[in-house]
Structures are given as C-alpha cells and as structure tokens.
C-alpha cells in the first residue's frame, strides 16, 4: 500500500471527495496512500482510498482524527493498516466540549459548507440558530440554512422570512424529501467535489436529506414521536457519504452548542452589529454602558432590535458561551 503520489489519484471517488491540486501537493512528500476519513468507529478510522475502503488504526501520536480528515494510510507490515499522518484542516466545525472541563470538540473537518437544518414542523429557537451560525461561520466554511420537511408547512414564506431576519446574509434553501423541492439546489451546491457538514437538532431531517441526495438508504431515519414531536436519535456517528458531485457529513442531533473561541464567528453571524462596533468611541467597547457606543445608540433609537442586541450580548459574554 505504501507509495508516493505527486499527482492526484485519477478516480471519480476522489474527485467527489474534493481532491484537488492543493491536497496533491500536501500529500506529495508523505509516504503512504492518501485517504479521506468517512467515519470513526470505536477508535478505528474508516477511510476511502483510490483503491476503495480501508479500515486503519491511527498511530498513537496523531491526536484526534475526525470524519472529513485527509490522512495517509500505510500497511502495518503484515498487521492492520495504519493511519500515519493527518493533513492540516482547511476548515473545522468546532464546539465547546459538553464535558465538565473547557475544551474544543471538532465535529467534522474539511467541509466547504455547513448546512444548518431546521425542521419546519418544530418551533424555531432563535438562540440555538444564533449558536449554530456562530459555530458554522467560525469553522471557515459557508453557512446555509436548510428548511426541511417543507411539505408540512402551512406558511412556508413566513418561515423563510423569519430565518432571513435572524441570519442576514445566509442563504436559505427550502427542501422536502417527500415532493423533492430544493434537492436540486442542494445538489448544485455540492458540484465539483464540494462537501457540506449537516448541523441540526435530533429529528430535524438530516439523515433523510442524506438519503435523498445519495439516492440510497445510507443513514437510518426514525419517526418523530407523536407525544412530544421529537425525533429519535437515528445517526449515532458522524459519517461522510458521497452523493452526486460531492459529499455530505451527517452528524448526530446536536442539542448543546457551547461556543469555543467564538469571536470570528460572532462577527460574521451578526454583521449588522459588527458594522456598528467599528463606530464605537472605544476600541474595547463591550456595548453595555460605555459612552459613545454605536451599538447602544442604535438599540435606543430602534434601528437595532432590542431582542437581537440581547442575543448578541449573551453570546459575547464569556460566562454564557459554554451554555446551550
């Protein structure tokens, strides 16, 4: 299996995985076979190589490997295949680890877009959407809000209007896996080997979207409980799936979205407030009580809605960024 590879492997699979000249250059000096991680299963990396799927054991000194990573895989000298190197990530979807100790947790890597999936049949929680946008923008990828299960919507336009007001600048795509609307738009967004990581609460319809885009039952889906309208957890591991033209990374339902180093994502998720901060009198203005604060002036005049101001302040407070 060990080889050197100055040129991109000429396979349709690798093209769909996003292989390009940059990855080829990064791999050129490394021994082993290039591969992309499709799943981590009890410590074993499931990967796709030019020759097909390979399961490999990560070397002990590599740190955490996640779904979406590009790695090198080498034979184990007669034993199991080994992951021997992990390439630097172009993008990374990171939240604060839900554990007791503050730490980052990488959910997925090397995606071009983050699809924030909202089930139109469930109430929209503005605070959760804010956090999802901060995490998505902070990843370095492009956020897209995907409205799922639109076939059950009574007033689809009203839902879109609310989402656009909460997420200025982010694209909103309305979809249904029942009547097929919007699926062609999502497919187009994946053309050329682009990758999207899906982010949403349990039962939001992420796995159904993956199944519809792939044309096969790749991920288990579950019914929504009639008692409380909540979906069963159907995706238990993060998995990269090749679909027409590109790939998607499905993730388990995420309730807790603690923020990790949110400053960059916060600026992009609240572009209206970020523009105002440039006009504050003090460079270190916290927008609470400071004189000459352009954010407070906009709030007091009504130009900036008070609710949006409060949500921004809550996310910019170190005491609250780790909460759900």
Examine the coordinates and then state which fold CATH places here, giving the name of the CATH topology of the largest domain: Rossmann fold
Provide the low-confidence segments as ranges.
218-234
Series of secondary-structure elements, N-terminal to C-terminal: HHEEEEEEEEHEHEHEHEEHHHH
What structural class do the secondary elements suggest? alpha/beta
Q: Find the CATH superfamily of the largest domain.
A: P-loop containing nucleotide triphosphate hydrolases
Straight-line distance between termini: 45 Å
Helix content: 25-40%
Mean pLDDT: 87
Instruction: Please tally the helical runs, counting DSSP H or I stretches of 4 or more residues.
Output: 10
Cα radius of gyration in angstroms: 21 Å
Give a count of the beta strands, DSSP E runs of length 2 or more: 13
Question: Tell me about the biggest sheet?
Answer: 6 strands, mixed
Strand content: 25-35%
The overall number of domains is 3
Question: Strand order across the biggest sheet?
Answer: 10-9-8-11-13-12
CATH class category label of the largest domain: Alpha Beta
């Amino acid at each position: 299996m060990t080889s050197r590879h100055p040129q991109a492997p000429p396979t349709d699979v690798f093209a769909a995985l996003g292989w390009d000249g940059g990855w080829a250059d990064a791999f050129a000096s490394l021994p082993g076979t290039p591969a992309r991680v499709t799943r981590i299963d009890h410590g074993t990396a499931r990967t796709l190589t030019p020759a097909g799927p390979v399961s490999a054991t990560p070397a002990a000194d590599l740190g955490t490997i996640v779904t979406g990573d590009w790695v090198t895989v080498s034979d184990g000298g007669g034993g199991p295949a080994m992951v021997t190197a992990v390439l630097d990530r172009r993008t990374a979807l990171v939240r604060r680890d839900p554990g007791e100790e503050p730490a980052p947790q990488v959910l997925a890597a090397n995606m071009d877009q983050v699809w924030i999936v909202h089930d139109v049949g469930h109430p929209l929680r503005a605070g959760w959407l804010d956090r999802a946008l901060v995490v998505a923008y902070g990843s370095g990828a492009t956020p897209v809000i995907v409205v799922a299960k639109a076939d059950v919507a009574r007033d689809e336009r009203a839902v879109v209007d609310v989402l656009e007001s909460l997420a200025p600048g982010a694209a909103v795509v309305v979809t249904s896996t029942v009547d097929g609307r919007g699926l062609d738009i999502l497919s187009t967004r994946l053309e050329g080997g682009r990758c999207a990581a899906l982010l949403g609460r349990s039962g939001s319809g992420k796995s159904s979207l993956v199944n519809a885009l792939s044309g096969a039952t790749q991920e288990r889906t579950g019914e929504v409980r009639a008692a409380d309208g909540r979906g069963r957890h159907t995706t238990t591991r993060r998995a990269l799936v090749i679909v027409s033209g590109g790939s998607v990374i499905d993730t388990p339902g995420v309730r807790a979205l603690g923020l990790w180093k949110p400053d960059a994502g916060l600026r992009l998720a609240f572009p209206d407030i970020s523009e105002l901060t440039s006009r504050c009198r003090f460079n270190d203005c916290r927008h609470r009580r400071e004189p000459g604060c352009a954010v407070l002036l906009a709030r007091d005049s009504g130009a900036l809605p008070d609710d949006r101001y409060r949500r921004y302040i809550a996310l910019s407070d170190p005491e609250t960024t780790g909460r759900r």
